[in-house]
Design brief:
Blueprint lengths: L4 H4 L4 E6 L11 H5 L6 E7 L5 H4 E3 L3 H6 L11 E2 L4 E3 L7 H5 L3 E8 L7 H10 L11 H10 L2 H7 L10 E4 L13 E6 L14 H12 L10 H9 L20 H14 L6 E6 L14 H20 L6 E7 L19 E7 L6 E3 L20 E2 H12 L5 H4 L15
Parallel strand pairs: 1-8, 2-9, 2-10, 6-12, 6-13, 7-8, 7-9
Antiparallel strand pairs: 3-5, 4-5, 6-11, 10-11
Helix pairs in contact: 11-12
Amino acid sequence: MRMNRRFFLHKGALAVAGTAAIPSFLVRSVLAETGAAPGQRLVVIFQRGAVDGLNVVVPYREKNYYSMRPTIAIPQKQVIDLDGFFGLHPSMAACKPLYDQGQLAIIHATGSPDMSRSHFDAQDYMESGTPGVKGTDDGWLNRALQAEDANAALRRRCAGTCEHSAFRALALGSDVPLTLAGRVPAIALNNLNSFAVGGRGPAPSTAASAFEAMYADSGDHIFHATGDETFEAVKMLRDANPAQYQPAPGVEYPNSEFGNSMKQIAQLLKANLGVEAAFTDVTGWDTHHAQGGVNGQLANRLGDFSASVAAFWRDLGDSAENVTLVTMSEFGRTARENGTGGTDHGHANAMFVLGGRARGGKVYGRWPGLDNDQLNQGRDLALTTDYRAVLGEVITHTLGTDNLEVVFPGVRLDPRSFLRLV
């Protein structure tokens, strides 16, 4: 049965099913064939579950850090020093070279000003970009792409001829996240090995049939696709052997869900399919019990996270110059460990910005301190940098967005107060 195009496009989102990675030969995409210069690309990683920023980026010169965390604090001699005050958890070692090379910037004591300690509400607020406002049904990144389209300078440069690939906005996973929901079409890519579109080969999947029908019947260019070549590139996925893809020499991704997601994003970016914004998430950060210190639950998660991000960056090679990656999480953890060797829902956290043009090698943001009278509500790291200021600066320099009020309504971001991360 043929699916209705408007039914399948829910909030501008197309979900595509399959099981493997995008093959490397898609460099034959229309963008490559026309010789178009690659633009800036943005990759967003959401650490769902509220990562413990205090044990990821350790304020090891704070005496109260150790007194509040007698069993889970990272011993000073095992912290990977950054600047004489902050250091990385030892499981983050794979990211230290990126910091030393000036490509990784860290922002501490940042996050959402909303005080919710509910994962569900806090994640929605972070993804919508409207903290404390329930019912926002589109995401900050989709609105940023809309603002890019409305950019007056861009319109003049394109002279009305700018078109976007069907792969412009994508998420690694089975569903398009709230971050990318909105008027700009977004694709959720998952299990691509079973994705088939028309022509020779196995019968197309339901998702593929819908994709084909939408493309063929879309008189209003719902995907803003760059032409038949883009659709042909999708067709080529059917016959591809995913094992063909080889990361750059010496690069090995962790064999994990997150590692595979980062590998697929690297492949998509290197394939020149017209990706401007990519999103993925990684779970497992809700460490209420037995969090561990140098070793344990959090350390294992950080090892996978760090190795995956570092492999992604090395895999990009020279193309990393035009890529910016930003991490975020709904809130941090309590400054004090709890009675079960874990941490509870907190407030401020740490964000990473990794980019070929980032001003890395520095920990940004005003540090509020960890003395008892400096804690938020007597229990959490206090917030000194709104996460929207970080994202606002990033999208200004990557997507060319010039109307931040559209992206983050009501916050009144002033570019003059940006941290100068990029």
